Amino acid sequence: MIDPRTPGPPRIDRSTFLRTSAGALLGSGLLLGTGSPAGAHDTSSRQSPEVTKIGDLTGPGLTTRFRMEATDLGIPVRTPDGRMLFVFGDSFETAIVGGGWWRSPTALYSTTTDLDAGVQWSGAVGGEAAEQLWHYDHDNPVFTTVLPSDVITIGETMYLHAMVNNGLGNVVWTEIWRSDDSGATWTHTDAHFDAHLHDGLFQLLTWAEGDDGYVYSTSFDRGRPIIMHRVPSVAIADPAAYEPWGHHDGAWDWGNPPTPILDGAFGEMCLRPLSGKWVLTWFDAGGYRIDGIIMDTPTSNLYTAHRRTLVHGGSWGHEDDSHVAQLYGGYIIPGSTLEELHLSVSQWNTDHDWPYKVMQHRIRGFAA
Predict the structure, then answer these.
(1) For residue 116, what is the enclosing H or E element?
(2) Rounded Cα gap, residues 53 and 51, in angstroms
(3) Fewer CB within 10 Å, N- or C-terminus of the chain?
(4) Structural element, H or E, at residue 226
(5) Is the distance from CB of 91 to CB of 73 less than 8 angstroms?
(6) Predicted pLDDT of residue 213
(7) What share of the chain in percent tops pLDDT 90?
(8) CA 135, 140, 143 angle in degrees (round to 5)?
(9) 281: enclosing H helix or E strand
């Protein structure tokens, strides 16, 4: 863990961060890993999935009662008691970035069973208003905000990996929190990871449970590849238990120094077992889109695995169901199948700081 008294790199604001990596495009319009360079996996000749925007999940009238009209991410997970919990990043009271009460992470519950009808909220962590999941002061001398990376349920316990940022994108360290009451309260596990671990490729992660916990990870700058680890599910909060996947002496094996499993400019990622397969979705910052891969196992060759573009980037004033201006995120909503994949997709107009919201999109034909 980095000594919090050591000054970090210069802080950058939220707008600057979103414009890095596919900056020109954005301005105009347990297993961890990253994506491929733009054009390295051309999907233009493949059958395009059918994409439908089910609706907005956050914003005025939708999350006003939780005092969080402006928010992003919305990382969903099934809770031990059977509900869904969506974990959000920087959240503000009114419909503009910086608008009033600032919290991160926040979370909302849903008991929705018919995803085609749209996710509806049944409550917030914290009561009537969505409280910050644990107490800290934003813009303190050590860091500015804490952002969720992914959340997982193992048995009766939920684990949340979070990135501590001194200016958005400048990770100071990462850590793991746990909840034993379906997300109502959170406590620190004492698990910390150095921001420079594995050349910075263990900052932003996604994880899912199979025989072990599998973890894909990358850096939090939207410009690097992904690497992979596995960890016994019972030891997910023990940093020493994470075992890298790497190529050495002509072969791939666990315990080798980590080797990128997919090159590219990766942003937010979501790895989940689904319908007997494994699915990875992510924001491809280099290609300005959300892509998805279907694989047999987390150790499958991601370069030859089934890959599709799920939601395309677009420009303001020229959006439709499958083209979203300044999109990012792309998390798999519980209840999805390969035939009907539902994603929570973020959008942020960095010129006006609104829209800054989360939407629900349905993808049919992903496996075709």
Answers:
(1) none
(2) 7
(3) C
(4) none
(5) no
(6) 83
(7) 85
(8) 90
(9) strand 277-284
CB 48 within 8 A of CB 367: no
Length of the chain: 368
The pairing of beta strand 84-88 with beta strand 171-179: unpaired
Could you give phi then psi for residue 230, rounded to 5 degrees? -130, 160
Gyration radius of the chain's alpha carbons: 19
- As given in the structure block, the two tokens for residue 88 are 């959000």
Is the separation of the CB atoms in 203 and 217 below 8 Å? yes
In this structure, is the dihedral angle defined by the CA atoms of residues 228, 234, 237 and 240, taken in order, positive or negative?
negative
- Which helix (H) or strand (E) segment is 136 a member of? none
E strand or H helix that includes residue 284? strand 277-284
Measured distance between the N- and C-terminal CA atoms of the chain, rounded to whole angstroms = 44
Can you say how many angstroms the Cα of residue 16 is from the centroid of all Cα atoms in its chain?
19
Residue whose C-alpha is closest to residue 304's, from 347, 275, 242, 261: 261
- Whether 28 has a pLDDT exceeding 80, the answer reads no
Contact between 213 and 207 under an 8 Å Cβ cutoff? The reply is: yes
Q: For residues 56 and 200, give the distance between their C-alpha atoms in angstroms, rounded to a whole number.
A: 34
Complete DSSP assignment for 262-274: B-S-EEEEEEEEE
pTM for the model stands at 0.91
Q: Which residues pair with residue 294 across a beta bridge?
A: 279, 306
**6 DSSP assignment:** S
For the residues of 304-351, what is the DSSP string, one character each?
TSEEEEEEEEE-TT--BTTEEETEEEEEEPTT--SSEEEEEEEEE-TT
350 in helix, strand or coil? coil
Average pLDDT, the chain: 90
Among 4-8, 41-45, 349-353, the range of highest mean pLDDT: 349-353
Kindly report, residue by residue over 58-80, the tens digit of the pLDDT: 999 999 999 999 999 999 999 99
pLDDT tens per residue, range 195-234: 999 999 999 999 999 988 899 999 999 999 999 999 999 9
